[in-house]
Amino acid sequence: MADPAGKATNHGYALARQLFDIRGDDLHVGGLAVREIVSRIGSPAYIYDGGGMRRAYRRLAAALDGFASIYYSVKANPARSVIRLFVEEGAGVEIASLGEYRAAIAAGAAPGRILFAGPGKRRAELEAVIEGGIGEIHIEGLDEIERIRAIGKRVHASIRINPVPDVQVGAMRMGGKATAFGFDEEDLDAAIAAVTAAPNIDLAGIHVYGGTQILDAEALIGGWRHAIDLASRVARTTGRPLRTVDLGGGLGIPYYANDKPLDLDAVAAAVPELTARMRAEPLLADARAIVEPGRFLTGEAGLYVSEINALKTSRGVRFLVLDGGMNHHLAASGNLGQVIKRNYPVVAPARMTAEPDQPATVVGPLCTPLDTLARDTGLPELRAGDLVAVLQSGAYGLTASPVNFLSHPQPAEALVEEGKIETIDRFRSMDVLPNREET
Description:
Elements: H1 12-19, E1 21-23, E2 26-29, E3 32-33, H2 34-41, E4 45-49, H3 50-63, E5 68-73, H4 80-89, E6 92-95, H5 98-106, E7 114-116, H6 123-132, E8 136-139, H7 142-151, E9 155-162, E10 172-173, E11 183-184, H8 188-197, E12 201-208, E13 211-212, H9 217-238, E14 244-246, H10 264-279, E15 288-291, H11 295-298, E16 302-314, E17 317-322, E18 346-347, E19 358-363, E20 372-379, E21 387-390, E22 412-417, E23 420-423, H12 426-429
Parallel strand pairs: 4-22, 5-6, 5-15, 6-7, 7-8, 8-9, 9-11, 9-12, 12-14, 14-15, 17-19
Antiparallel strand pairs: 1-2, 2-3, 4-16, 10-13, 16-17, 16-21, 18-21, 19-20, 22-23
Helix pairs in contact: 3-4, 3-10, 9-10
């Protein structure tokens, strides 16, 4: 990108100053310079700021105070150190597989504070979580009802509802069209009848998830209002009170130059009205609202850092070739669902005072042109051995990437807080993330 005078621009530097400490030339995470962290754990690396995650959680908890409980959505970043941090902060946990359940338990989550969502739950997964203890299972289809009925043990469950199209928002819409997720709103009465007919399923509530990466507070609040109305409809149909109203996640963070952050003040201002809306229905008077963010809690606190391996110029374009790329960070390459590829914010974390006005295209080591992490962005003059950091990388990073493509090494990972580095052994973490159903 270039400004009107023709100089390269880069919004990453302003964002880095908002999110992290800058001391001299160095960007600091958790009290340590990024280059010091990399010297100790290696490159490429994911570095997570524990303090930043705690601040995000506390800001959201303050905005939702008196209205909703927070359940961390493990899919955003399933590292046990990260899950444990949010459990320490008081969060529940939302999981979408048996592997995530085991990771949550290993991180110290209480079974009764875990919700199990996601389509296509296998019988063995359902048996395992019911046996181990689970707060709620969010039922997504008739097959799940039959599997739970056949298991025979009593369990609390919520009905996941695919809402009507006019309440869908976000970068990726999770409902409002033909989808594998939940029961269509127009089929809700049949879903209620099927769940309540199962003698071992206690209908605890509903789950509505409208979309992801939502930055519009009014749109988010509008979706929550609709979910509360659906909960009231379910309670009236059954004539029984509900325990929970899961409003879903989808809270976004600003990735691109013109993105505006989600206005938590506007969310907080809507809390009295949302609370009154629930209390107006006697069968929801004692219900607990749930919000299940992932990206919002972890995304801004993460960096993907990689070392420049080579520089070259091809037909007037300056390329910085890193030792890691889309195999570690598919989202930053624009190949994780983006229709138009736009740059994630990138900085040179050990050259923060240098003018970032030299256009550069940042690529990884893979033999494909898809392996591009930034296109024509402004960076200082750099050389082999310098570091490049991709901001906004704490969510949907390593575990959402094709890490085995071309068989390059796995990146290091670390949670850094108050000057202490806690390395994350992803291979050890995978011990609790089985890739096959147990018999």
